[in-house]
Amino acid sequence: MLIAVATAAVADPALFQSSQLTPAGEYTFGIEGPAVDAAGNLFVVNFGKPGTIGRLAAGASTSEKYIDLPDGSVGVSLRFARDGAMYIADYKRHTIFTLAPESREPAVWFQSDAMSQPNDLTIARDGTLYASDPDWKGRSGRIWRIAKSADSTVQGTPMPAPRAMGTTNGIDLSPDGRTLYVGESNSGQVWSYTIAGLALTNPRLLATFEPNTIDGLRTDVAGRLLIARILKGQIAIVAPSGKPIRAVVLKGKEPTNLAFGGPDGKTVYVTQRQGGYIETFRTDQQGRERCVVMGTC
Fold first, then answer.
1. What is the distance between the alpha carbons of residues 33 and 169, in angstroms, rounded to a whole number?
2. Those residues with Cβ within 8 angstroms of residue 292's Cβ, 6 or more apart along the chain or in another chain
3. Residue ranges of the alpha helices (H) in the chain?
4. Structural domains for the chain
């Protein structure tokens, strides 16, 4: 006698419904800088103590220490390039490190004491880095462009802009790489700029939130901005026009940053300062950087 066995299909998680992924306390109060490599592993700074990078393996729910940074260095932002290299912003020593694929030995990519501190990073398809450089005491900031020159040396310079910036924090690029989005923490404003070589032009106020309630941000392939609303417990999703689309309610109240991952690039990971853990939710669009890392755009 044949017995038919019905296998229930596993439903996809509901979109924009966040849940806690890792145990509380894995990361310090300085949990930040999430980034996902091509294999789907999530990397986050300050695992267990300052000056470390943790790794959450693809499909796992607990993290492990990946590397220690050099003595005196503390990471704040991570990004992956198309070639698999990881870039690490060290705000203590005004340094950008690079970590080759499969390596555990960070090398200095760029260093300048002219920086107040490198904070958040974003990376273009051609490997050009943009770093926010806030002066928290002065309530001001800049954006640095860091790239290889014709002689293959790495050069970094602050980008002139038509307006004085506030405390520059979260940054990311539009899908076509022509626009840079910059969040200013002190004012709660998000601005867009056209990238014109070494300069930023055409400033446009995109969105305004309460002062001191925005941190990291990321863009997706549709050009939308996902903005971490620190102290508000939300991820705000904003259209490229600045029109609010939705707010994703989180479990914790202090999201610092976010990154896209998962096999289809539509899983969002959020670093939570409150509790030192990672939350996750599904979205309907792939992340811009994830698309670049996977080589699908």
1. 12
2. 82, 123, 125
3. 288-294
4. 19-294 (2.120.10.30)
Walk along the chain (297 residues) and give the pLDDT tens digit of each residue. 333 333 333 446 799 999 999 999 999 999 999 999 999 999 999 999 999 999 999 999 999 999 999 999 999 999 999 999 999 999 999 999 999 998 999 999 999 999 999 999 999 999 999 999 999 999 999 999 999 998 999 999 999 999 999 999 999 999 999 999 999 999 999 999 999 999 999 999 999 999 999 999 999 999 999 999 999 999 999 999 999 999 999 999 999 999 999 999 999 999 999 999 999 999 999 999 999 998 888
Tokens of 96: 């950008």
DSSP letters spanning 110-147: EE-TTSS----EEE-TTS-EEEEEEETTTTEEEEEEEE
- Residues near 107 by Cβ (< 8 Å), separated by ≥ 6? 97, 98, 99, 100
The DSSP line for 36-101 is: E-TTS-EEEEEESSTTEEEEE-TT-SS-EEEEEPSTT--EEEEEE-TTS-EEEEETTTTEEEEE-T
With contact defined as beta carbons under 8 Å apart, do 293 and 286 qualify?
Answer: no
DSSP state of 16: T
> C-alpha angle with apex 290: 286 to 274, nearest 5 degrees?
90
